[in-house]
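Same chain as my last thread, 213 residues:
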Amino acid sequence: MSLRLYVATTSQGKLRDFRTAAQAFGVEIETLPGLEKIEPPEEDAPTFEGNATLKAVYYSRYLPGKLIIADDSGLEVDALDGAPGVRSARFASDAGLVDSPDAEDNTDVWNNMVLLQCMDKVSADQRTARYNCALVCALDGHVRDVAHGEVHGVILDAPRGLGGFGYDPLFYLPELDKTMAELDLETKLTLSHRGRALEALLTKLQAARSETR
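reply #2:
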C-alpha cells in the first residue's frame, strides 16, 4: 500500500510541486479535505520551522489517523539581513501595498516590485539569496518528522521567465544561467528548496515504515 500524505495548503503552485516531487517515491499527495472551510491558524512564529510546525499540528487534528504535511518557506536575501524571510508572502502588504477587492490576485507582482525597490542600490556582487523551506509532518496533533531544503541564487534587477510563482522570476541560478521561472518543472523540482525538503521528509517517513514492518 502506497504512502499517502495530506498537505495543508491552498496554493496550487505548492501542491503541484509536492505532487511532482512525490512521484519518484510512489507517494500520493492530496489536499486536506475541507481545507477551505477550516479557519487557518495565525502564523506568528519567527522561523519557517515554527510556522510549519504550528500549521501541521493544527491541521492534523482535523483528519485523525492521517499524516498531514505543512510547509513554511520563503526568500532570504543577504543584503536585506535575511528579509523578507517568514514575511515573504506578505512583503508587499507589510509595505502598505494592497490590491483592490475586485482585482486579480497580484500578490506575486507586488512582492517582486517591493523586492526590486529594496535592492535598487545593491551591487551585483552583493545580491546573493536563498530559498528556504521547512516541512513538517504531523499525526493527531503531534510532530512526526521535520525536514529542510535550501537553494542558493542571486536576485536579478529585472524579472525573467513566465513559469513558477512567488519570487521565481527574480531568483537567478548562475550555474544554469536561468531563473527559477525559466526552468521546466522537472528540473526545478530537482533543485528547489521545496523539492529537497520533501525528498528528505519522504526518505525519513519511508525508513520509519520499513522499520515497523
